[in-house]
Amino acid sequence: MALHRAARFTDVPENRGLEVHINEMKIVLLKVGVQLRAFQGECPHAGAPLAEGAVCHGRLICPWHKAAFRIEDGALCEPPALDSLRRYGVEMRGDEVWVDDQPLLDGHPPPADDPRTFVIVGAGAAGTACAAALREKGFGGRIQLIDREPGAGYDRTVLSKFVIAGEMPPEEIPPLRDEEFYKAQRIERIQGEVASLDAANKTLRLTDGQSFTYDAAVLATGGIPEPLKLPGADLPQVFLLRSREQAKRIIEAAKPGQRVMIIGDSFIALESASALRQYGLDVTVLARHAVPFAAQFGTTVGKAIRARHEANGVVFHTQGEAQRIDGTDKVEAVQLDNGQRLPADLVLVGIGVNPATEPFADLPKEKDNSLKVDGGMRVSDGLWAVGDIATFPLNGQPQRIEHWRLAQQQARIAAANMLGGNEHYLDVPFFWTWHFGKNYDYLGHAEQWDDVEFKGDPYHPPFIGLFGKDGVVVAAVACDEERAMAMLAERMKQPLPVDEAWRLVRDFG
Ligand SMILES: Cc1cc2nc3c(=O)[nH]c(=O)nc-3n(C[C@H](O)[C@H](O)[C@H](O)COP(=O)(O)OP(=O)(O)OC[C@H]3O[C@@H](n4cnc5c(N)ncnc54)[C@H](O)[C@@H]3O)c2cc1C
Ligand code: FES
Going by CA atoms, what residue is nearest to atom 1 of ligand 2? Predict the structure, then answer.
């Protein structure tokens, strides 16, 4: 344990951090009033340099996926990080800032002094975040985390970005938590498929006949990709993409030079188009829309993303619908309803996702088969639902949104409420998507806007676009404008006039 001279107080900016290095270690220094704090310099989620984030409303917001930490003590406020920041001691000597090279001690898991059992079904983004949050918030009882996938609880978002691009072997997909965490936190991981739920008797049954009774349960079973219901869709080279196993099958089958037909123009479809093209395949997208993502990003950014794909050799086919996959024991072509026949060696289907709620036959469902929850993510007494299966009230409107960070935020809200809290979702939905080496960030959930303005050129990032309605920002889309988006993630929680937002973008861009 030793102190190191790290910076001068006056070097540390007001609304962002300063990165310093101590023995190769990256540390971020933050001002908290007239005091300073020192934390680990890289985000515990995926390693973003936290000094490139923004400080706002007493929080440090990560530049990459907008995790938020309290600047006072580094406590986790918003995922996708699941840990608080490691904190280091600071000593001021005049204007000089000296930082300890050893972190202050972490808290311990709560004592096992609670007789209750909480069961979580699904160990994906939401389920894993919920288990971690229960312990973080002091729950000492039993936590059983059930998932049908072996080794569940990994970063699903890399499947369509890096795994099927051949850049990340399936066995190197980052786990959300390591084995040591589950052991230390006494989280029991059970591999099994839930077949039914008897909510009145608080009992879950697995397909192998085992049953589990609970005091409270969280359903976090995510989505199942919509399958292609066409002749030939059962051929072995027709793929869906949701799980590590499916990504593995795709990358094992794909060979550079082959022709892949991507059916659909969803985010997963176009991320897969980008990844497989980068892996060296000839990629055709059979798209329903001439401009992809126009409903979310508007036509200008949608066209720019399509142009980016085309500049990299992806071919868009927007006439006709798939009618049949031709081939006897392997895919040969996709036959369209307009008579065209497009040759293909592989087909990847990305036409949407359905909530995985089949086992919950007795619960009332929405039209899309999702489970309706109240603002606190509660389905009924002792039962919560979070993530891709949940329809929740967002600004008074029922919404089901398939975003990683939102699923984990809902999970943290459910965890707090299972412990007697009364938390509601009050944040701005956020997601990111990756195309040919560029990350696009989106904040908001706007279905309508009456104004859109850009700084920079969507065809040549960096750029940021603000969508306004009645003079207030309802959404923002950007590429390579991470600090400004980190700031907007915090400021858009309250009605933010468009003019004020542009001032922030100028100050933080
Ligand atoms: C390839 C891909 C890329 C993505 N990229 C992004 C991105 O870049 N940014 C973003 O914001 N979002 C992205 N998403 C969306 C994001 O992954 C989801 O919104 C998020 O995973 C939802 O979390 P969840 O916990 O509800 O579901 P999941 O993470 O899918 O977890 C559900 C878990 O439940 C288990 N399960 C299901 N049924 C049962 C059962 N009956 N019994 C036991 N276990 C069961 C499943 O095995 C799974 O592990 C991506 C999704 C995919 C598929
Ligand atoms: S790296 Fe910080 S939230 Fe992902």
Answer: 46
Dist. CA 149 → ligand 1 center (Å): 11
Report the alpha-carbon distance of residue 241 to residue 228 in Å, rounded: 12
Judged by DSSP in three states, 507 sits in helix
- Of 28, 40, 42, 43, the one to substitute when testing ligand 2's pocket (max ligand atoms within 8 A of C-beta) is 43
The 10s digit of each residue's pLDDT in 438-488 is: 999 999 999 999 999 999 999 999 999 999 999 999 999 999 999 999 999
Mean pLDDT, all residues of the chain: 97
Pick the CATH number of 117-224+354-418 from 3.50.50.60, 1.10.8.100, 3.90.1170.30, 3.30.1330.100: 3.50.50.60
Question: Quick one: pLDDT band at residue 4, thresholds 50, 70, 90?
Answer: very high
Strand partners, 285: 262, 316
Query: Quick one: which H or E segment has residue 180?
Result: helix 179-184
DSSP 75-92: -EEESS--SPPPEEEEEE
- Ligand 2 atom nearest the C-alpha of 53 is 2
Q: Which ligand lies nearest to the CA atom of residue 296 in the structure?
A: 1
| Contact (CB, 8 A) for 240 and 275 | no
Query: What separation in Å is there between the alpha carbon of 224 and the centre of ligand 1?
Result: 9
Pick the CATH number of 3-103 from 2.30.40.10, 2.130.10.150, 2.102.10.10, 3.30.479.20: 2.102.10.10
Closest ligand to the CA of 405: 1
- H/E segment holding residue 273: helix 267-278
Q: Determine which residue's CA is closest to atom 4 belonging to ligand 2.
A: 65
Alpha helices (runs of H) in 331-403, residue ranges in sequence order: none
124 lines ligand 1 (CB under 6 A): yes
Tens of pLDDT along 350-374?
A: 999 999 999 999 999 999 999 999 9
pLDDT in tens, 164-186: 999 999 999 999 999 999 999 99
Q: Is the distance from the beta carbon of residue 483 to the nearest atom of ligand 2 less than 6 Å?
A: no
Q: How far is the CA of 154 from the centre of ligand 1 (A)?
A: 9
Q: Per-residue pLDDT for 1 more than 80?
A: no
Find, among 250, 247, 340, 330, the residue nearest to 286 by Cα: 340
Q: Which of 147, 208, 389, 438 to mutate to test the pocket of ligand 1 (most atoms within 8 A of CB)?
A: 147
* Three-class HEC string of 388-430: HHEEEEECCEEECCCCHHHHHHHHHHHHHHHCCCCCCCCCCCE
Residue 257 Cα to ligand 1 middle (Å): 30
